[in-house]
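Suppose a colleague, Dr. K., hands you the sequence of a protein chain of 502 amino acids and asks what its three-dimensional shape might be. Before reaching for any lab equipment, you can write down a predicted structure in token form. Begin with the sequence itself:
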Amino acid sequence: MPVESLISGDVVAKHNTRDSCWIIVHGHVYDVTEFLDGGSKIILKYAGKDATDEYDPIHPPDAITKNLPKDKHLGKIDINTVKKVVKEITVEEKERQARVNLRPHLGEIINLHDFEAIAKLVMPEKAWAYYSSAADDEITLRENHAAYHRIWFRPRVLRDVTHVDFSTTILGQKSSMPIYITATALGKLGHPDGELNLTRAAAKHGIIQMIPTLASCSFDELVDAAIPDQSQFLQLYVNKDRARTKEFVQHAEKRGIKGLFITVDAPQLGRREKDMRMKFEDEAPNEQTKEGKDIERNQGAARAISTFIDPGLCWSDLEWFKSITKMPIILKGVQTWEDAILAANAGVQGIVLSNHGGRQLDFAPAGIEVLIDVVAKLKSELGMTLPNPNFQIFVDGGVRRATDVLKAIALGATAVGIGRPFLYAFSAYGQEGVEHALSILHDEFEMNMRLVGAITLNDIIPSMVDTRSISSHVVPVPDDRLYDNNYESMQVARLKNLKAKL
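The predicted structure, expressed as tokens, is then:
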């Protein structure tokens, strides 16, 4: 059998222009000339060089091998002939690395706010900007959290709460708590293991993870990392190329995914100005690479990874989705009772009341506020009582405490999705951080179930909460000092070389 000849680093180095651009990733050489345009500065920066270190944080490991045409796979590199790209460590990066070594012991982290406070100080600026940013003036981002403060408990007493049980089932799948890890993109921006931190921690705590379309890890990598009988959902951005969507959905079903959450609130991604100011100049993850065309990359990470999403997705497409999969279909991003009724009539299995973590339309209402209207209208218009196993309602956005979740359960939600807090947990402490975050929530559920007088989640009912102020958006509420301390105010344009510090 002939031995495969190796490509010399000197040969690769000659292909460093727009007319002929080769890069090295994981010991293999690829011709990426066709993927260049005026915005692809990061590719040209690594033209003729080893781009692995830049590639890994925002690409699944199989993205380039699966999506680049085979004739562009040029062969293996002679690693001994490659000149390594020396990354300059800036003063800011040295200071950040020093802060990493000053993190408090994990045992000193006592709530989800603490993870955010530490992550803000130890994460790379680009990662923090992507994770924390939201749409326009970030009013909805803050409202998502503040809305829970306008709901008060009406606790019951003299009930035997020696043993409390807050386990539940979500789309028929068991969960130790009424939460799931909702989909968030680009996990490797925060930690080298990316979303694998979530998969492994979810397994240990009996929680369901929703795998994002735009994960840094490959879909199969995350499924393979699950333990036997571990349940996972899939969040889907619908590709303009429906053949690719069909292939992805059916592959997910074959791999055992238990629920398909179709994102419906993102015909175009919102303006996330903190992210935009970082001038994200990178190639894009798995689904973006499949497009085989270039995009403007000076609008932040969000814009740089999302141009494959179909803005033409509409209600009539749901019949097609039902024809290609038997997985439960959930619409993620419903924001009005009118669309909730349309979803129920369309025969899907549920909805997520969500505004995309405040990252899409600013001044969209908080999911917890929409929940009240949705439950009332489903009952009056369709005679549906909630919670309902045939049409489940979920909420996400702004959750930082188990009490937030219990308020949503009382109002008719089946479970609540939590995203950013787990990103901050693994960005600061890796998998152990996510596990500790889940332990904190577990302890909060146990305590607060007792304090409100509920033995099981069935005892968390509407009469246990007072929602009279929920729609009064300017009603005074007690300040949440922890949340406010973590919130980083938006910046305006500045003179060159004057940069705000965290």
